[in-house]
Every structure is written in C-alpha cells, then in structure tokens.
Specification:
The complex is a heterodimer of chains A (about 325) and B (about 350). Chain A is mainly α and about 325 residues long. Chain A has helices at about 1-20, 25-60, 65-70, 80-115, 115-130, 135-160, 165-170, 180-205, 210-215, 220-250, 255-260, 275-285, 290-324, and strands at about 70-75, 80. Chain B starts with a helix and ends in a 14-residue tail after the last helix. The chains are: A mainly alpha (about 325), B alpha/beta (about 350).
Chain lengths: ~325, ~350
C-alpha cells in the first residue's frame, strides 16, 4: 500500500519533466479547439469569397439595378432581385408576426402556468417540431395545408373583402389555390416557433424565483407579473431568440419553394404567389448556365447581406437596451 | 426528387466499387427527364453483360458542364446543343429516346380527352390573354362540352427543366406573341399563374386547384391519371397523346436537317403527330481521352437500340423509329473513331 502510493508520487513528480519534451495534452487541446474555431472562420470566408466571385459578373453587368429591378428574364439575360428580396422580407415578417406571440405564449405557459405533469410532454413536442425536416413541412404545406387554406380561409375571406379599399386588395385571392406569400409565411411561422419558444423558455426559467414570488406577494395578478416583472427582465434576451428565428425564416428554402407559388411578380395581395431569394436559387440552380448562374450567386450574396444586417441590427439593439 | 435520384446513383456507384473490377463501368450525368428509363436499361444491361452504368440525374446543364470538363464518359441533355457549340466543345450528339409533354387540367365535369385546344389558344391561356374557361375561342373548338365561367389558373414548372424548354419551344412556334414575349427556355418569365416544383409540384397544384391547367411529362400524367387535353397539330387534326402519336411526330421529322440531330420534334406535320414531342440527347467527346470508355458507352446505347424498346414503352417513353436508329449508328461509325481510324464501336447491329 505504502509502496504503491510512493510509486504514484514518484510518477506524478516525474511528469513535469516529461511534459516539456512532448506536446502536452493541454497544448494539444488548446490547438484543437483553436483549430475548430478557425475552421468555421475559414469555411465562412470561403463561402463569402466564392459567392462574391461567382456573383461579381452579375453585379458588374447590372450594378445597383440588380437590386432594384424586378425583371427576371432568363431568355433575355436580364436579372433583378427586387421581387425575391421583397418576398423574402414579407414572408419572414409574416412568420414573425404569427410566430413570436405564439412562441412567447408557449414559453410563459410552460414556465409560469403549466401544471408539472404537462410540462414534459409539451416541451418535448415543441422540440420535436424543430427536428422535422423542412421538406416535410413543404410537402405537408402543399398537399394538406394549401387545399384546406384555400377552402376555409382564402375563398371566404376573398368574398368578404372583395371591393373594399386596402384589405380588398391585400387579402383578395384572384385564384384561390392555397399557395402564396401568406401560406409560405404561415408555414415559416410554424418552423420558427420551436426555436423562439425553447430559448424564451430557458430565459424565463433563469429569472430568480424570488422576483416572481415577491411580485405575487404584493398582490400582482399573473398577467401583471408576466407583463411588468418578467418580460422587462428578459426583454433583451428575447430579442436574441427572435433574431435566431428570423434568421431561419429568411434562409428557409425547400418548404417555401413548395408553397409560395414561385411567380416573379410583385402583387398587392398576400394570397398571390411570389418568390423568395432562397426559393429562386433552389428552383433555378440545377439548370442555370452563364449569367443566370452568376445572378443566382449574386442573389446568394444579397441573402447573406440581408441576414448579416439583421443580425448586426439585433446586436446593436441588444447593446443599446443593455446600456440604457 | 433530384436528390433521391442522385443518391440512388451514388448508391449504385458505391455498390459497384466493391464488386469485380473486370466489368466495365460507364459513367454519365445530365438530364432528369430520361432518368427512370436509363436506370431500367442499366439494370437489365448489368444483368446481361455484367457491365455497370452509373448515371447521375443532375439536370441537363450539369450534364453539359460535366462532359465539357470530361469528368464523365457521356453527358445527357434534353435541349440539344447547337452545331457550333458541338464543334467548339468537340462533342458528338445523338438522340436515344423520346417523350411527350402534355397539357393537364382540372375542370369539374370534363373528363380526360374531352377538352380540345389549339396551339394559339394554349399559348394565350399561359399568356393571360384568355382568362376564363368559357371564353369564346375555347367554346368554339369545344362544342358540346360545358365549360364553366371560371378563371383559369395556369400552372408552370418553377424549376428550370427540359420539360419547360420543350413546352415553350412549342408555344413559340405556334404563337408570335409568345415568341416575342416569354420566349423559349428551361425557365421563362411567366406572365400569369403559379409555379410548382417538379412534375409532382405541377401535378399537385393542377389536381388541387379547380380550373387549373398545367403541363407535365406524358408518363407522369398517365401514371397519375390526370385529365389530359387533346391538341390540334400542324395538319389541323386533334390528337390525343399516346405512343402512336409520339411515333408519328418522330417519323415525319427530317432528322438530317440539323447536325447533331438537334431538331425539335414539336409542331411536326402529319395527321397523327402529337405536337409537343421531344427527343432527349447524349453527348460524347469526339476525341476522348479514354476511347475505351466511350466505346463501352456506345456498346450500351447500341444494346439499348436493339433490346431497349419494350422497356421504354413500359415506362411510357417512346423508342426512336428504326430509320433514326440507323442514322445514329451511321454517325457513330463515321464520327467516333480511335487513333488508328477504326470506329470505336466495332459492329453495330
């Protein structure tokens, strides 16, 4: 027993001298983690670089007109991204308008109101929602949701608002097919809910219980606790969660391609077909050659820029709220 | 769909790696439209000869890119390359099999084959000039058929595809407004309607949206029992799409008119000719780096010409007429030779 511990002592005392001759485990670990971080950086720079390189001919050919023009004519090699940009922003906005309140509702319910036995099933369901592949959302949207949406929403709403100013054009379906910008936005909202909801739940969970309890203690109602105590506490972090959802909504490809109707037209109606940057790329990349391929790459650059801008704005917003 | 094709091809390639190395392995890439029949031929060919064909259906332009880069033994494309492009890239082009594009519709109370359309009417529907089914111009050619007072929803392929290329080629031939408007291409700027992704996307929209009209490959319409319209051909006759009318379109064409057989089979003369018929093409290098690989590819296509007709018919493709096959074989003999000047394919039968 004594001999054993002595031996152990000796070996451990020997270690420092051996360490110096080889790369120590600690150094290797540090290098490996640095490498992992660098790989992300290199890959990202590589993607940006090759997209700018690929898209450059289109930017050179059309200049700023590439962003402002709404013509996308493969026959005459004229390309403009405006319709796709508008479609991308519109669908993402719809997704947020629908998805954020629902996500926050889920988070508040799970953390404040949910009976313990129900917590696990609801939370698991939401996480499963995040694991569904986007092509499944697309197929479900096209084959199941779109016909129902046409029958129970588009047709009744269209006949209700027909002829009215403003809503008569925004919510009027010339051909109620079930697919269109609004359908894409709704499908996207379902896709981003799990992201926003689960992060919002984690954030709400982190609030010290004492705050909530003291608020209840002075006689606040549940609504007052949530509205005036909890939400102000987490406001900034919730914005982060929403931005993550927005990022996904902006870049979603396959599900949107299935349900947006893929038309290169600007329309006042949310029921009309449109297209997004990602869906345009998914549709045309396979058969694209020459300038069309460059234009698609340039679209990719723009999407990258849009997403990047959104993330930066979110950061700035968070920073401002924090200092205030 | 394309992803799954690709993975099937990748799987085939993987499987073949582990097997005997003595058998030849031919690689090809390109058009998605003929993929099902190429896959079937490859399977039977493998059973008979032990040789393998690895075909990746990555789309026509991908096939052209790959054969230009010489990363495959042959490329496949739906839209033929022009003579000067073939010349520039040192490629030889020949047709293998044909298919048809058909207008499909969804009008309550009008079963398949009841609706008749002319080329100009079809073009004007997709142009948005004819907006309702009870338009006078449609009613005039459909006497006895009750067509509703309903807005037509045209449905098109949103992804770039050879099917769209063939369809718009036809519309440009029959309508000046179409030609000077959207024009011809694998994706065009559609003035009205909605886009579905792939044949399955178009078919789903047409079947779900009342009063819709779209276009899909014949095999797809037939296998899914979607109502198909009759079309008036160049000779003024109304014909239904079927093997016989596709064959008729091919039989009347002048295949020698364009080098590389790059003719369009749309809008062909003949009482029985279906007006939207199209061949699909193979590209091989004129001076290959590996002549033995091209020879193997030619052996495969020669076998296809000899034994593949029934398999194509079973999958609702249309085999080439025998005289056309003979023309293609003659092209192989005269244009594809090894370094000593001998034809790459020794004895085509």
């Amino acid at each position: 027993m004594v001999a054993l511990s002595q031996k152990a002592l000796v070996t451990s005392a020997d270690k420092p001298s051996r360490r110096s001759s080889f790369l120590s485990f600690d150094d290797a670990f540090r290098l490996a983690s640095l490498g992992s971080a660098l790989i992300v950086l290199i890959v990202l720079l590589g993607i940006i670089g090759s997209m700018i390189y690929g898209g450059w001919p289109a930017f050179r050919e059309f200049g700023l007109g590439f962003i402002t023009s709404s013509v996308w004519d493969v026959q005459r090699d004229q390309y403009g991204a405006w319709v796709a940009i508008v479609g991308t922003l519109t669908t993402a906005l719809i997704a947020l308008v629908i998805g954020v309140p629902i996500s926050l509702g889920i988070a508040v319910f799970l953390t404040q109101l949910c009976p313990p036995w129900l917590k696990r099933p609801v939370a698991t369901t939401i996480e499963l929602l995040a694991a569904v592949p986007s092509i499944i959302y697309g197929m479900w949207g096209l084959f199941v949701f779109a016909p129902l949406f046409a029958r129970f929403i588009q047709i009744p709403v269209s006949s209700l608002v027909e002829g009215l100013p403003l809503v008569g054009s925004i919510l009027y379906a010339r051909t109620p097919s079930g697919v269109g910008v609004l359908t894409a936005g709704i499908i996207l909202s379902i896709m981003i809910i799990p992201f926003i909801a689960s992060i919002a739940r984690d954030i709400l969970d982190q609030i010290p219980p004492v705050m909530r309890e003291s608020a209840y203690g002075i006689g606040c109602t549940t609504w007052e606790v949530v509205r005036h105590v909890l939400l102000p506490q987490v406001g900034v972090s919730i914005i982060g969660a929403i931005m993550l959802g927005l990022g996904r909504a902006l870049g979603e490809t396959m599900a949107v391609t299935f349900v947006i109707g893929n038309a290169n037209r600007l329309s006042a109606s949310l029921f009309d077909p449109g297209s997004t940057i990602a869906s345009r790329i998914a549709n045309e990349f396979n058969e694209a050659i020459g300038l069309q391929l460059n234009a698609l790459m340039a679209l990719g650059c723009i999407l990258f820029l849009v997403t990047f801008t959104v993330l930066v704005l979110a950061r700035l917003l968070v920073a401002r709220v924090k200092t205030a | 769909m394309k992803i799954s094709h690709f993975s099937v091809a990748a799987g085939l390639a993987l499987a073949s790696c582990s097997l005997a190395v003595t058998a030849a392995e031919i690689t090809g890439a390109g058009a998605t439209f003929p993929f099902p029949v190429y896959a079937r031929w490859a399977e039977v060919y493998n059973q008979e000869t032990g040789n393998r064909l690895n075909y990746q259906s990555i789309g026509s332009s991908g096939g052209i890119r790959q054969i230009r880069a010489k990363t495959v033994d042959f490329g496949a494309t739906d839209a033929p390359l022009k003579a000067e492009e073939l010349q520039k890239d040192g490629l030889v082009q020949f047709p293998v099999v044909m298919g048809g594009v058909v207008p499909v519709y969804n009008i309550q109370g009008v079963p398949t084959g009841q609706l008749k359309l002319t080329g100009e009417v079809l073009a004007d529907i997709f142009n948005g000039k004819i907006a309702k089914w009870n338009d006078a111009r449609i009613a005039q050619i459909n006497q006895g058929v009750t067509l509703p007072n309903a807005t037509i929803t045209p449905v098109y392929r949103s992804d770039g595809s050879g099917t769209t290329n063939v369809f718009t080629t036809y519309l440009s031939q029959v309508s000046e407004t179409w030609k000077s408007g959207p024009g011809t291409g694998s994706s065009v700027q559609w003035p009205v309607g909605q886009g579905g992704k792939g044949n399955e996307g178009v078919a789903a929209l047409v079947q779900q949206v009342p009063n819709a009209i779209g276009y899909v490959e014949y095999a797809y319409a037939k296998q899914n029992s979607i109502p198909v319209a009759q079309l008036q051909n160049k000779s003024g006759k109304y014909v239904a799409p079927e093997a016989k009318t596709f064959q008729a379109a091919a039989a009347n064409a002048d295949w020698k008119a364009v080098p590389g057989f790059g003719i369009s089979l749309t809008h062909q003369p003949g009482d029985e000719a279906w007006p939207i018929t199209a061949p699909t093409f193979i590209l091989v290098p004129r001076a290959p780096e590996k002549p033995e690989q091209v020879a193997e590819a030619l052996k495969f296509f020669n076998w296809v010409f000899t034994k593949g007709d029934q398999m194509a018919i079973d999958l609702d493709y249309v085999p080439l007429p025998t005289p056309v096959k003979d023309l293609v074989r003659a092209t192989w003999q005269s244009e594809l030779k090894d370094k000593s000047g001998q034809p790459l394919l020794k004895q085509p039968s």
